[in-house]
Amino acid sequence: MDDYIAKLPAWQQEICQRVRDLAHAADPEVVETIKRTVQPYFVLQGNVCALLAAKDHVTVFLYDGGIVPDPDGIVTGGHENKTGRMIAYHEGEPINAPALTRYFQHIIANNRAGGWRKIKAARER
């Protein structure tokens, strides 16, 4: 993951490092891995999030099955997606650290409870 981050412009490095720190702060058992050859993922009994730097933003993909509450309104896209949502951070935009940490903790709790698919199916019964 260090190689992925090191190749980015300074402002994207800062965002990626902040998200990285928050993922680990959400739970010390979170593990970093690379999937799809180059994409950084954070996992704990399933995917928690992934990073993808684009030209004018960094996307944090949230593997929540669309079931994690977002009372702080940090999710910026994928509201109708059945497997996950995303947050796009642009240069100079603040990261709501408490809200993102809570979001990660909720995803991790869902993963430990069997994953969002199992939880979603139970809710639909």
TrEMBL record:
Do you know which InterPro entries this protein is assigned to? YdhG-like
Q: Where is the YdhG-like domain?
A: 12-107
Q: Name one Pfam family in it.
A: DUF1801
Entry superkingdom? Bacteria
Q: What is this protein called?
A: DUF1801 domain-containing protein
This chain's source organism reads: Actinokineospora soli
